[in-house]
Write a structure and sequence with these properties.
alpha+beta, 7 strands, globular
Length: 142
């Protein structure tokens, strides 16, 4: 069996009136939620929170729906991405310079409605978006 690399991230949401907005990050032409590799011995949830802070500056995450998660099917070199859902009240995001890269890991961020997000993400990420949307709204996605 080939080695699986676990990546962990958070679908960060924020309420704007009665609409949930999803935080999407763009690297080149690829939109995704904040995520990164789980280090050896690191708890996946802690890794997910660390990645969010490193990539966006967000520290205030509320896991009001608990610590349930959804995972992608394996992709790339046997990677699996696990996502949790958390709420923040913070609107301003920073894209800090990554010490390893010498520039920010992402080119831009966007707070997108479910429909906007659905139009930006690839099918693998769309499945996570649908899961998160169902999870927070209690409504099934058509």
């Amino acid at each position: 069996m080939e080695h699986t690399i676990l990546s962990a991230g958070v679908v960060v949401v924020r309420r704007e009136g009665d609409v949930w907005k999803y935080l999407l990050l763009r690297a080149y032409n690829y939109w995704d939620f904040s995520k990164g590799i789980v280090e050896a011995g690191e708890d996946p949830l802690e890794a997910a929170c660390r990645e969010v802070e490193e990539e966006t500056g967000l520290r205030e995450l509320t896991f009001r729906w608990g610590h349930g998660f959804s995972e992608t099917e394996p992709y790339g070199q046997g990677k699996i991405a696990r996502y949790y859902v958390a709420e923040t009240r913070q609107e301003t995001i920073i894209l800090p310079v990554s010490p390893e890269l010498g520039h920010p890991e992402h080119h831009e961020y966007r707070w997108a409605s479910y429909q906007e997000a659905r139009g930006l993400v690839v099918p693998r990420v769309a499945r996570i978006l649908d899961w998160a949307h169902t999870f927070i709204s209690g409504k099934t996605v058509e």
